[in-house]
Amino acid sequence: MNEEGAEAESLVGLIDQLIEPVPPAPVPLVPQTWGWVALAVLFAALALWGLGLGHRRRVASAYRRAALAELDRAGTTAELAAVLRRAALAAFPRAEVASLTGTDWTNFLSRTARSRFPDTAGEELRRAPYRDPGAAPSPELRRAAEHWLKTHRAAPAAPARELAA
Question: Segment Disordered: which positions (predicted)?
């Protein structure tokens, strides 16, 4: 080998003879098949359905939130009993709730709740109209009323109505 040929075949000489590669085409970020579009439409429809369902549930339980806020402000047993009655009238048909008194009323509260309305709280609630109008409710009655407001199962056909003040 001579020195001229060695110089042409040296590493630096070979590197200088290389051609720059062509950069690849950019990867598209848009789906290439209609299946992805269909999946996106299905996902959007499910999301809208879920939002609508959540909105309907929120509207249907507005009377619960209003009743719980009033329950916090109720200072007497009579006010607490009125809050329970208005919430029941908002959640159930008037014909079913309006005429209930005494043990029928507390049995209704037990029947529509997830757990039985406590007997001592029910007794205090039944005696509320005959007590001192300024008498404060016991902590047990307040807890039982709050539990009923949070957990009762409203009638399925009952329209959501505002809790009258």
Answer: 120-142
